[in-house]
Amino acid sequence: MKLSLIVISIVCILLLATFSVPAVQAVGSIVYTSTADFDGGNKSDPGQDYFVANGVDQPTYSFVSKPAAIYSSVVDRTYIVYEGDAGFVPYIVYYDHTLAQWSDPVIVNDTNPVSGDGHGAPAMWIDSSGYIYVFYGAHATAMQLKRSTNVYNISSWTQLSSPTPGSPPSNQGTYPHLFEHGGYIYFFYRQGTAAGGDWGFRRSNDFGVSWSSFTMTLDFGTDGLYIGDHVYVASQSRVYYTFVWDNRVEIKRHNAYVCYWDLTTNTQFGIDGVNLGPLVTLAEANTNCRAAYTGSGIGGFSNMKLDSSNRPYVLFVNGTAVVYDTYNITFVSWNGSAWSVQQNITNTDATSGYTDFIVHSPTSIEAFLTTAGFRQLFDPADDFNGDLERWTWNGSTWTYQETIMYEEKSGLPVNRPHVPLNHVPEITIIFDSWLPKNLLAPQAKIWAWGSNGLVFRTETPSDTLGIETLTDNLQISNGTFQLSNGNSDTFATSSSDASSYKWSNIPTGDDNLGIMSKRFVNGTYNVTVTNPGSTGRLGSTLVGNFGVTGVFDVRVKFNDTIPESDPGGNTFYALCMFSQPDECDSVSGALYVGTNGVYWQFSPSVPWFTSFKVNNINNDGWVEEIGSTAFVSCGPPCWLRITKTGTTWTFYRSTDGTAWAQHSQQVIANFTASTWYVHLEIHSNGVNDGNTWAAEVDDYNLVTGSLNTNGYRPIGSWKSPLQTYNGEVAKSIVVGYSGATSTKYIDEIAVVDSQDNVLFADGTNRISGTSANFTIGDNDFLSLFGKDWSVRVTLAGDGSGSVIVNDITVYTVRSTLTIAISDAPWIIGFFALISLGLAGALALKKKRGNR
Description:
The chain contains 6 helices and 59 strands. The chain has 851 residues and is mostly beta strands. It has 4 domains: 2-19 and 823-849; 26-47 and 713-820, Jelly Rolls (Sandwich); 52-454, Neuraminidase (6 Propeller), CATH 2.120.10; 506-707, Jelly Rolls, CATH 2.60.120.200. A hairpin with a 2-residue loop joins strand 39 and strand 40. Helix 1 runs antiparallel to helix 6. The chain is globular, with a radius of gyration of 34 Å.
């Protein structure tokens, strides 16, 4: 019997071993190879790269009204104020760093006493209790003030009395600077009506309900000054501030100055420590506060920051204003006893090239500089600048690092970079755009940029997907996907203002009576105009946020959807190729200096076709017809086409987009630009008869040609349809691709759950080869049990191209835990049999033992 028990035990152990957790078992595969497959997944939408699109004129006056943005660690939010809408009303919005999302912009007050005047943009303060104050609506007028009803909350506001009631005129205020000290909110501003004016302060210790009388701190007599930055140093009860001298005889600004203000004694000091008493004069400023001398040249507003030893560093713009691009962005620093020699970082094209910067240490400074942009025809001062660049300082040398935003990409000049007070790296800088040709149009955008790049408004669709297929882009091969690009556009996404990652929408014409809507809808760019003016034109131009290079062939389809019904009005369509982003409105002469290119125009209501070459290199608005006007019909719809080979430009028309009739051709040798920007225009000459017309654009297609570095999204992803958990999990993913390089590659392959949480990911950059394989280890399968899942493939690029994904295969296996659970009844039955056998053996033994 003893031997029998041993044998039974050995057999049981051997049988039990066969029921240990089995290895994973292959089940099947899921293959994605067609455009339908890729359209069935999520082609990603990163959201808008800007967080506001309704700014007007100068949405922030952040270079002289401070602060316009504040980070609060109490609620982990960055708050920003700006003016928007046609009424220039004050708005506030915030970014919640914990939730990683933007709030909706909120109107602080629905009117602005200085509507139409961009100098009345708001500044803000958050007091130590958490109440938010917005100062707005003043330019040598009574300052307006509202306080949030609840702490850190922007939903409702309490109107407070004006701290500058405006009567007599000497009480009027401009350009608020705000800080808090000793239980008081300080309101530091320019008083009076004269440009430049005297500066001083009022203060309040009852939450802004009442304010002290005005105390003057700077008086330049008949001249004036403008305060740029102020920096409050709590440990020393000081405020350092920088300013420029406004010579009211020359009507020019000069020099850069730094003083500091002892708040305990209300005494002003030169940066050299000389006591200047309660009031600084121009003579005292020149002797004791001047950081840089600009001579007869023009100086711009200055920025100032301190290092940990409270030594100031200053940026300012200065130049001769004689030749385009002769303004310098200049840097000086105080070493404790003297100012350094002026060092020019780079040049810009006007004193409106605003800047801001961060001092990390005396040998580490990060600066944000607005550099040269495209200039207007009639007023060279109205360039309003262009690109935003990031530069760094190592203690001796300034080095260019990157361009944060190109004017070509924004569609408009960008400007006014400002670092939020108490900023965190995620939002290092806020900046916005300027509309030099239509300051009253509430279409200026505002961006935030930081350690992770632009801070997207993920809650708002961007109108351009992260990646595209043939469905969205005619130049993407069937059965593939790649990063979204400007090679083609079917306008498959929607947009209420007809602006997108690919296109900026710019109103054209001089008619202020008509009502126009512009949008991407139902796969077209649609423009509808009601009640055109009696003499003016009203229309809209899509300006490509990308440039075309090399030999090219570009085509687009125009179509009347509601024809012009009045015989006195004509509709016009145009395809333009210009050397820089501009309005496709060349016949009116409203071009920027330096614009040249061609203009291919069609009027369906006359009908006629005509082509032009335009050259504004010499600021002369020169326009010359190519060939002769052809009085022929086309469609609707009608296709326009322009080709360029070498210096030869050719213009075609078509009724079906396939058979093309050549209109004209010309060799234009003096066009030297290497990059050309696409413009699509719809406009009308109409009469005031209340009629409505509408037209649409579709199937923009760059058949041949390359794109510049703004041509592609830098990152985008595709996510497979969600797989409902059925006992199987992804074991390995194989991605077939082509065109990978060190700058255009597969950035990540991941398995994600239904909430887009990453379950497993391979972040290897696939910069070569044609196939990527990502395999999940057997020991990791337990974490996949019971979860619905998708595969996500992320692409990255340099803006000039993309890796192309051809196919994705997912090999699946039965989940380890599923196998164990599904085999549990057999294991339980086995143990039951073993138990019965052992029980029987024991019973038999006992029976024999009783004999």
